[in-house]
Structure formats: structure tokens, C-alpha cells
């Protein structure tokens, strides 16, 4: 079910008079991503407004908390909770799903991907990760998730589609977590373990032979979390997360 | 002089003029003038208010063009939805820059003070007034050296910004320590929209509203958050 629409736009543009005078040093037209949670006709109107408002504010708050904690997430550019609009930094990169084997075949959500389909060459080359070095990327994933969990943010929808690889200004590959639409705040070991479990399932269902890759996600996660790891691991190994996924 | 242009907004709100001044000499006098304009009544008051109908912002506390732009944009949004927390769209810019909800604090910190030497002057309007005309109007009230907005980085006071936004102990800033360029980039990205507390308040208010409506709608006693959860689903 479609719950929100996504657009690429810019907050401001170059003023016509500046364009005419050739003064284009200010890049006011840098792109942002707009998430629009449109009004749902099947919901009572007041309920719809309050829910939308709370969700937009909640997503913005989670992003700000992550930014403060140094987790790589898109920066917030505008918040219009009343109308259900959230504007965030445009991440110029590729989803991890498309970079991993088996993930490129079907892409049924998100922005229009047709532009990217022109060349289906080895995307990993662009990020200096050769085919044999998936593990480096897995390490980045584990580290970012751990940093997020350390400030008690639960993503709620960790899949390889919700992670993007981009290049930083220095040329170093950078992993960015996106889509905090289902995120919430919790310090419970259970919730963190469920977050990881959801990702494990996502790996298993989208990418063949992903078990060793997921293990290196966990290794990096362990290094970053430190002493909290044991409790989370225990919970994850119990395999009882399955029941609580149906939240 | 510089311009922000929001082509999708109503024509009378699409353009914002920005002027950056260094070596401002009349800050104390300017502050008195703004206060006097706000308290004068009648036609003389209207004229006095029009003369200082700008947002005067301490330029040390602005990290980038984008930082100012988002604050202006959020103020325009609030105005369009009749949701201004302060009296004018210009004072709303100051409120949006301040990370807390306190209007007095926002004006004291981000507005013009007697010690201000670097000033950003912002005017939101329809762009009917030519840039030259706007510049001369601004220069009638501000005595200082007009500087291109691209020089803002030389003015920004990162230490004070870290203090106001409570960033010193944040992991993101700590991780970037020693690498000035990275640290400033991290701070810039955070402060661009750092309305944590106001967002918190909005969200909390929504939950209270929702809870109250749930009670009145179903005539059930719904007071715990657990019950609220089931209704939401």
C-alpha cells in the first residue's frame, strides 16, 4: 500500500535576475528529497491530521538525533508537519540492495529508478569496492546501525533498500541509512535485536548466500556496541524475535 | 546584497533580500530604534516600523547560506498556515534559528545586541522593490561594510554555536574533533534544522489531542498509552 509519495526538488532556485546577470556562484538549486504523507480518505479527518503530524515530526526528530550522534543519515531541510511534508538532504548514491548480487532485479518502491538503469555495469567499481570486498560494505552497515542503536533509535525497517552508498568529498565510500518513517525511540534490548533480525531476514530473502555477509555486519556491530552486545546477541540467538516482528 | 527565490510560493512571498554587514558601528542605536519603532503608535509608528521592517540577525551565529535559508523557509511556512509563534514573519526567522522555544531568548541571542559587529539583514517580500532600492533602504539603518554572503564563513563563531545548540558533548562533533573542516560540516548539517524541542512539543501535543479525541469519540475511558496504541492501529 502506498503511504507516502517521494519527490526530488529544491528548496529555492536561483533568482531570475541573478541568472540574467550570470551570477551563479550560489547553488540554491541543490536537490532535496520531499516525502509527502498525503491525507488518507479512509481515516477520520482529525485522526488523519494528528497521525500525520506526529509521524512527520517523529521522523524529523529521529534524523536529528542520529545526526547529533554522528550516524550517517540525510540532513533535515524542511518540516511541514501540518501538511505532512518532510524535506531532507538528497543522497547521491545507490542503494545497497542494487549493489549486492540478486538485489538489482526488482525495484518496486522508491523514486523512479529508470534513469539509473541505462548502464547496469558493475556498480561496485564506482565505490572502489571490488566484488570480493562486499565485506567492507557490510562492516560499514554494522557500524552505522550500532551507532544508531547506541542512542536508542530503532530504525524499524532495516532492509538493504534503506541503505545507500555514496562517495564523500574525499572520495571515501560512505554508508547512509535512510527512511526513518517507521523509527522510534527505545532502549530495550528486544527492540534492537528485532531491528537486526529484520535485516537478517531481508538479507536472506533478497540476496543469495548472504549468511557470511550478514555475519560481518554483526561483527562490526559488536565492535561498535561493546558491552551491550552480549545481551543483544543472546536475544537474537533465541530466535524469539519472530513473534515480535508482527508489531 | 543577495536573494533567495522560492518560485513555488505566493508571489508576494517568493523573494527574500539578504545583506551581510561587517564592522557594524551603530548596533546599540539600531537596537534602540527597533524597540522604539515597536512601541510607537499611530502613523508615525507605522512609518518607523516600515523603516526597520527587516530581520536583523547576528551573523556570527549563522553557519551557512542553507542555514539561513531553511529558517526563512520555515517562517514563510508558518506564516502561510497562520502558525506564527511570534508577531511577524521576520521575528519568526529568529525564533526558527534558536533551538529552543523561548522567544525572548531567541531575540536576545540571534537578534541585534549592543555588541553586535556582524549583521545579516533579511527582508521577506514579493521582490517588487529593486535590489538597489532595497540596498539603500537597508543602508539607511545599518552603518557598516556591505560584504558578499560568501564571506559568511569568516564570520561564523563555531564555539558559541556549539554552546547554544548543546553540541560539545555530541558524538558526531567529538568524532570530528581535530578536523576543523569536518567538524564545521557536521555542525552545519545539524543546526540547519535543529528544532528538536519544538518538534517534540508538536508531537506531544498531537498525542494529547489524539488521546482526548479518542475519549470523546468512543466515550470510553482511554487514559493509558497502551489503550491509545490499539486505537491508533
TrEMBL record, chain A:
User: Is the keyword Zinc assigned to this protein?
Assistant: no
Gene Ontology terms for molecular function: ATP binding; protein serine/threonine kinase activity
Q: Per the UniProt record, which EC number(s) apply here? A: 2.7.11.1
A GO cellular component entry from the record: EKC/KEOPS complex
Mind telling me which Gene3D superfamilies this protein's record contains?
Phosphorylase Kinase, domain 1 (3.30.200.20), Transferase(Phosphotransferase) domain 1 (1.10.510.10)
Catalytic activities:
L-seryl-[protein] + ATP = O-phospho-L-seryl-[protein] + ADP + H(+); L-threonyl-[protein] + ATP = O-phospho-L-threonyl-[protein] + ADP + H(+)
Q: Which PROSITE patterns match?
A: PROTEIN_KINASE_DOM, PROTEIN_KINASE_TYR
Cite the SUPFAM superfamilies for this sequence. Answer: Protein kinase-like (PK-like)
Q: Where is the Protein kinase domain?
A: 1-247
What GO terms describe the biological role, i.e. biological process, of this protein?
tRNA processing; tRNA threonylcarbamoyladenosine metabolic process
- Matches recorded under InterPro entries: Bud32, Kinase-like_dom_sf, Prot_kinase_dom, Tyr_kinase_AS
Q: What keywords are annotated for this sequence in UniProt? A: ATP-binding, Kinase, Nucleotide-binding, Serine/threonine-protein kinase, Transferase, tRNA processing
Does the keyword RNA-binding feature in the UniProt annotation? no
Origin superkingdom: Eukaryota
Q: Which family does it belong to?
A: Belongs to the protein kinase superfamily. BUD32 family.
Q: Could you identify this protein by its name?
A: non-specific serine/threonine protein kinase
Look up and give the organism this protein is from.
Answer: Leucocoprinus birnbaumii
Taxonomy-wise, where does this protein's organism fall, top ranks first? Eukaryota, Fungi, Dikarya, Basidiomycota, Agaricomycotina
Automatic annotation (TrEMBL), chain B:
Keyword Phosphoprotein in record: no
**Looking at the keywords, is Transferase present?**
no
Q: What do the Gene Ontology cellular component annotations say? A: cytosol; EKC/KEOPS complex; nucleus
Q: Name one Pfam family in it.
A: CGI-121
- Give the subcellular location: Nucleus
SUPFAM superfamilies named among the record's database cross-references: PF0523-like (SSF143870)
Record-linked InterPro entries: CGI121/TPRKB, CGI121/TPRKB_sf
Q: Which UniProt keywords apply?
A: Nucleus, tRNA processing
Q: Chief localization class? A: nucleus
Q: Name one GO biological process term.
A: tRNA threonylcarbamoyladenosine modification
Q: Which domain of life is it from?
A: Eukaryota
Function, please? Answer: Component of the EKC/KEOPS complex that is required for the formation of a threonylcarbamoyl group on adenosine at position 37 (t(6)A37) in tRNAs that read codons beginning with adenine. The complex is probably involved in the transfer of the threonylcarbamoyl moiety of threonylcarbamoyl-AMP (TC-AMP) to the N6 group of A37. CGI121 acts as an allosteric effector that regulates the t(6)A activity of the complex. The EKC/KEOPS complex also promotes both telomere uncapping and telomere elongation. The complex is required for efficient recruitment of transcriptional coactivators.
Similarity comment: family membership: Belongs to the CGI121/TPRKB family.
Q: Give the protein's recorded name.
A: EKC/KEOPS complex subunit CGI121
Q: What is the lineage of its organism?
A: Eukaryota, Fungi, Dikarya, Basidiomycota, Agaricomycotina
